[in-house]
From TrEMBL:
GO molecular function term, any single one: adenyl-nucleotide exchange factor activity
Designated name of the protein: TOG domain-containing protein
InterPro entries found in the cross-reference section: ARM-like, ARM-type_fold, Hsp70_NEF-Inhibitors, Nucleotide_exch_fac_Fes1, TOG
Domain TOG residues, every copy: 46-289
Protein source organism: Populus deltoides (Eastern poplar)
Low complexity: compositionally biased ranges: 362-375
UniProt cross-references to Pfam families, sorted A to Z: Fes1 (PF08609)
Length: 395
């Protein structure tokens, strides 16, 4: 094999020669077997072994790594590789058992911002849709450094990545949500909305919507902290995703039942009506292409207006709520050419039948079969029916 990589051409030729079916099966020689195993092993990676090696690096003090010439960029590359490995849920859960979870969480406190951000990305991958790893991270006190980075890290990218990890960690995780409330997480979300960073705002708005959807009582906290006014402002953002996320959160607030009312958001709030009217005007001026991309925004504006004012928005009168073709299913161009025979027969069970000539068919019996005379009679009946069908068709 060449030193610069596996000999793929040789491996392909060898495989074809031994599996093309032109030669009889034979036992591999020891030399061929060894060559083949070396070729395959050169492309296989022992993931657990590699994760253990990365764990050893993460366990090494930062000063020692620096003295050995290991740079923060090298650490980021290792974390990139680790993230690929833990995309498999089994590997994500195994990270703790091989001792890699705790040092990974330690990197959330690394002196280099890029390392802190990358560590949060890896945590996100580990806990996403993974209750077992969510529990392991909570038990390893991983929530605290994530919350600290989210609320107070000087680097906005680190704060954004930490928020993404928190969102994945507490999703469908009641202890995580409780810890978020106790950690004054809602106040940090309010700060994120006012940051001016659209990525940070999007993640914050998406988490707010999730929390409101999961527990309507959080609407009181959100209202008391002044979220509605901030979200009203963001509903006019130049970023389409921020606008939609803000409208989605406002709609959730409007739908929440607070003190038996439709929600404090809708109570004598002229600012809300003004914002929605501005969005209607903005949508009216959109090009056809932009209108197509803003389908969800159009529906959110109409739903929010309807929730607060018990009437449809003017988007309906303008014909802008549902554009032509948006509510129509795609054309069915194949079924008429490939209609199943049974379905076609069931659709016209009486076609080709003449009540005057139709004869009662003999019952299906289990046995040696009908007598020759019965068979002749049945054949004559079939011929008559076929003849009638032919005549009816020609008519």
């Amino acid at each position: 094999m060449a030193k610069d990589g596996p000999n793929w051409d040789g491996l392909l030729k060898w495989s074809l020669a031994h599996s093309d079916g032109t030669s009889s099966n034979r036992n591999l020689s020891e030399e061929d077997r060894r060559w083949f195993m070396e070729a395959m092993q050169s492309q296989s990676v022992d993931v657990v072994k590699r994760m253990k090696e990365i764990t050893l690096v993460m366990q090494t003090p930062e000063q020692v790594l620096e003295s050995q010439g290991v740079t923060p960029a090298d650490i980021e590359d290792l974390l990139d590789e680790l993230q690929e490995h833990v995309e498999a849920i089994d590997m994500a859960n195994d990270l703790h058992s091989i001792g890699g979870l705790v040092p990974l969480l330690g990197y959330l406190k690394n002196t280099h911002a890029n390392v802190r951000a990358k560590a949060a990305e890896v945590v996100t991958t580990i806990v996403q849709n993974n209750p077992r790893s969510q529990q392991l991270v909570m038990e390893a006190n991983g929530f605290e450094p994530l919350l600290s980075n989210f609320t107070s890290d000087p680097d906005v990218t680190v704060r954004t990545k930490a928020l993404g990890a928190i969102s994945s960690l507490i999703r469908h995780n009641k202890p995580g949500i409780a810890a978020f409330r106790l950690g004054n997480g809602f106040a940090a979300l309010r700060d994120a909305l006012g940051s001016g960073n659209v990525r940070f705002q999007r993640k914050a708005l998406n988490l707010i919507h999730y929390l409101l959807h999961e527990n309507s009582s959080d609407g009181s906290i959100v209202s008391d902290l002044g979220f509605p006014r901030i979200m009203l402002h963001l509903a006019s953002s130049e970023d389409a995703e921020v606008r939609e996320a803000a409208l989605r959160g406002l709609l959730e607030l409007a739908r929440n039942k607070i003190d038996g009312n439709t929600g404090r958001l809708c109570e004598d709030d002229e600012i809300l009506k003004q914002v929605l009217e501005e969005r209607v005007n903005g949508i009216s001026l959109m090009s056809p292409e932009d209108l197509g991309a803003a389908r969800e925004e159009r529906q959110l504006v109409d739903s929010l207006w309807n929730a607060c004012y018990n009437e449809p928005s003017s988007l309906r009168d303008k014909g802008l709520l549902v554009l032509p073709g948006e509510d129509s299913p795609p054309p069915d161009v194949a079924s008429k050419h490939f209609e199943p025979p049974l379905r076609a027969w069931a659709a016209r069970p009486d076609a080709g039948k003449n009540p005057g000539t139709e004869k009662k068919q003999a019952p299906l019996l289990l046995g040696l079969g009908p007598a020759p005379e019965a068979a002749n009679v049945q054949g004559t009946s079939s011929g008559e029916v076929n003849g009638d069908e032919h005549n009816n068709t020609s008519t």
